Amino acid sequence: MQRLKHSDPDFETRFARLVDGRRESDEDVSRTVADIIARVRAHGDTALAEYTIRYDKFAPASEDDWQISAATCEAAYKALDGDVRDALQLAADRIRAYHEAQLPANRDYTDDVGVRLGATWRGVDAAGLYVPGGRAAYPSSMLMNAIPAKVAGVERLVVTTPTPKGEVNDLVLAAAHIAGVDEIWRVGGAQAVAALAYGTERIAPVDVVVGPGNAWVAEAKRQLYGVVGIDMVAGPSEILVIADGENDPDWIAADLLSQAEHDPTSQSILITDDANFAEQVEDRVDVQCAMLSTNRTARESWDANGALIVVEALEDALPLANRLAAEHVELAVADPEALMKGLRHAGSVFLGRHTPEAVGDYVAGPNHVLPTGRRARFASGLSVLDFMKRTSFIALDEKSLASIGPAAVTLAHLEGLPAHAKSVELRLK
Amino acid sequence: MQRLKHSDPDFETRFARLVDGRRESDEDVSRTVADIIARVRAHGDTALAEYTIRYDKFAPASEDDWQISAATCEAAYKALDGDVRDALQLAADRIRAYHEAQLPANRDYTDDVGVRLGATWRGVDAAGLYVPGGRAAYPSSMLMNAIPAKVAGVERLVVTTPTPKGEVNDLVLAAAHIAGVDEIWRVGGAQAVAALAYGTERIAPVDVVVGPGNAWVAEAKRQLYGVVGIDMVAGPSEILVIADGENDPDWIAADLLSQAEHDPTSQSILITDDANFAEQVEDRVDVQCAMLSTNRTARESWDANGALIVVEALEDALPLANRLAAEHVELAVADPEALMKGLRHAGSVFLGRHTPEAVGDYVAGPNHVLPTGRRARFASGLSVLDFMKRTSFIALDEKSLASIGPAAVTLAHLEGLPAHAKSVELRLK
């Protein structure tokens, strides 16, 4: 963990290192992934079977074994404890409500020269969702990725997930049941992404692939971008807490640790205008961390990537926050609204002392799939828009074509495209 | 050009070939582009200068020579003929109006348990626009790419364009003046995209890179996706005309040729329910083509990629059109509205007999940067959204946290994330 003081002479150097520091792996897997994609494209299910044995040590015993059935998911749902089922259902309902309100409006209007213009939004026909195997598979992620697709109107929502040595994650299956997933295939890695993009004999191709994954999965999505649509590449998670000295240091320490416990590459940063408060938080982090079952991960993350930054005034936090462009930003201050106005880059903002980031991970409603690694400068959280596309339309009649057509003829000639000009001229006669 | 009849026994085989046929180059430039990006990242302007001499045969004579000034663009604008200036201005005004109406609404509401939720859209700080050199540089493309960025609120809009042997395109500069471009740098290729993404000593980095380019530029954008945001990879242009026999065959022939004249890889397809009409169009294509100054390109495109498809009834065109998912779809029929309802995948639709696709290229208002190569299945035309990002926000108070917080605690424990649970539990006490 680093301690920075805004007034220190070396502040800029150290802060810049914090902003530019890459916590993402640079692993060059592009050649291997290109090979996997080419093989799946050429050999379909045969290639999938080979990779699934090699990487997941799993060989389906029968044709049915390639999929996890809707009945299995329903059974997993029914086997949940009541309070767990209620919590997942509350989360699903709230996520659905938020994303339904996010649906974009179609446009259709006629302008002052009589040209009818507009745009129609539609869900894609089919979407694929990559769900990692093992520790990284969370039921909450299933809800956050699958529900927006269904709200967008996607008719066929396909999950691929590795089942190492045949092992499945019942919580994730229960969440798939709640979200209304249509197919689940027991394949993972770059080969699963290739199968989703190009299709195989068993798996029909999809139009969009989303979901988190390791370096191979991320690289496969990148290479297949254009064959299908993809969501933003996700990196290690991060939180920036901007807090004044009036907070309970235990609360803020827990918030920092809630990010740190995800992964050793996670990052937790506190900016405060109160140096004493920073010390108290540091102390509470150490105490709480020792008691966590996730102690090892949280400790490693906090030691390697954590930072406490002391500024003279809370407003001084804003330019720093905008440079960090963090995935999650908590504003634990008396007037969070005022600070938010000046915050240009953030994935999601948590306002006030009673909004711990973790409520956003589960039940608040907005998506928890958010831009990481300074990408909030240009990227947004996952939304229904990732599963939709827009078709614009134009309708002219004789009169409106007479009004704007001649300008099109002029520009077409200017650009050396006579057939463009001709197609308008013929109709102007 | 191919003639297909829906009722022919080999129709499906031949149509599938049309749908799956790739007209895009498979050129493997990834290694070269990776090297260029690495060198620009490491050596900045020195690398840019080397590549600019090597590929563009251009060595700036002075520091000023790296840029094209606002004064130069203004002079180019003032030197335009009156009718050209008016046409460009009309186009710019109509593009601006359409894209202003496209700006997304912010959200801010409090739900029934007292949780305040919402999302704020903001333009990115800086955007880069790649403008090809030579033949492919069109003033209309400058307007279509630059105006949405400015409407989105982008403060710094940076153009990079190669100037082979120092040559500049005055029409493009005039359009840059109209669109309000802030900087123009005389660099091109993958090295320009790398400079935009990572910045150099002279060029400050941007957040989003858009614009068409050759295979090197497209590959550079793909490799830098995630460092910056990018627009969809664009392939060869295409038009699908669905027309009944009541059209003037000359009009439809001109529409098909307006696409064919772009590039030998362009594709023009007519689907009609009238076999005689198809023959008439074929005849008129040949006659008109012979008279075009773009004859060679149009001929090559039509011969290699054109198709005339005869169906029994117009409704039969819809499933075919949805499989083609074309960039441009003209509905030259009596009731275009009815057909549009069944058209699920298209970049842009042109309704009725008086809406030639070329009006959309220039003056209608909607963007002419549209998804190609079947990507309308999942992608949309360029819009203000490509230059904006959304920040979600959440605000709870004691009462609303008491309402939904316990479910978050349950789910956090379920996922083995005790610090997540703790951050909520502490506030529930």
Automatic annotation (TrEMBL), chains A, B:
Positions of Zn(2+) binding: 259, 262, 361, 420
Residue numbers binding NAD(+): 130, 191, 214
Entry's Gene Ontology cellular component terms: cytosol
Pfam families: Histidinol_dh
Biological process according to GO: L-histidine biosynthetic process
Keyword Oxidoreductase: yes
Annotated signal sequence range: none
Positions that bind substrate: 237, 259, 262, 328, 361, 415, 420
Catalysed reactions, semicolon-separated: L-histidinol + 2 NAD(+) + H2O = L-histidine + 2 NADH + 3 H(+)
Function of the protein: Catalyzes the sequential NAD-dependent oxidations of L-histidinol to L-histidinaldehyde and then to L-histidine.
Protein's name in the database: Histidinol dehydrogenase
